[in-house]
Amino acid sequence: MPSNRVSILTVAALSGALLAACSRPPPAATAEPAPTAATAATPAPSAADTGAFAFRIGALEAYALKDGDIDVANDGKTFAIGEPAEQVAALLTAAGQPTDTLHLSIQPLLVRSGDRTLLFDTGAAGVSFARAGRLPAALKAAGVEPAQVSDIFISHAHPDHVGGLRASDGALAFPNAVVHLSRPEWEALKGDAGNAALVAAIAPKVQAFEPDAAILPGLVDAVAVDGHTPGHSAYRIASGDQRLLYLGDTAHHFVISVQRPEWTVDYDRDATLAEASRRALLQRAVDEDMHVYAVHFPFPGLGRIKRQGEGFAWAPDR
């Protein structure tokens, strides 16, 4: 998630076992012994432990996949640029958040639909600004091998979203997947010499689409959200009458980005346009009562945008 002043890319089961002891009742005069460590129940691993949180979109099976975290200093250089420090601190304090550091999660989305396995963004892999690279383990916890992924939907080409496209040896991490991204984003990626190796690796797999295209009709539509990068896209995933809006980088922080969408973010290529786009999509999420998947909000990033006074607030599912 680099500044717009640097290259777009600088880098190349959920189940536990219960151990039950079956024994004859002890003699009436003998007190029943307390369970020992050997006979006590073993807790099921949590989604936080495995990095895979299961949920549904209508009839579709879906997983939030934890790849890692990014910590950003709250120093006015990245978020809330030009805003009074005390005002930013007050907003964070009111939400029970630390005022020195902004914590961002990284969580690609997995969706299964019939014989298709869809992955939305690929995490940060080994990029230097993130503590990341857990996506392969999270996929395994969800019961998916990389070769099973049929479609990858890239919101934009910042390294915390495309870093996992290639393995450490440079080979495709998802060898059988078609890579979908908007045509403006693809053209910008190809035009950046620093991304030559990535472009060469994924070019045979890329299917570029026009902004707002119905990519997989009835299943996945693109939603153009202008300003962050040349062709940034959110995605709307449908099943029956259920919809999930995948935000991409429309909003980064669950307090600042939602409650103050007009505050400038250094990551945005065109800050003025991104601010207008952010507010418009948040308003649409409220108007349509959309279920939202936020890539950088606290794991698992599921919830809704609610009206709060003249602005908005994030209401997580849990």
TrEMBL record:
Recite the lineage of the species: Bacteria, Pseudomonadati, Pseudomonadota, Gammaproteobacteria, Lysobacterales
- Metallo-beta-lactamase domain sequence ranges: 105-296
Q: Which domain of life is it from?
A: Bacteria
Record protein name field: MBL fold metallo-hydrolase
Q: Which organism is it from?
A: Lysobacter firmicutimachus
CDD domains, per the entry: OPHC2-like_MBL-fold (cd07720)
Q: Which Gene3D superfamilies match?
A: Ribonuclease Z/Hydroxyacylglutathione hydrolase-like
Q: Where is the composition biased (Low complexity)?
A: 29-44
* Disordered as annotated region, ranges: 25-44
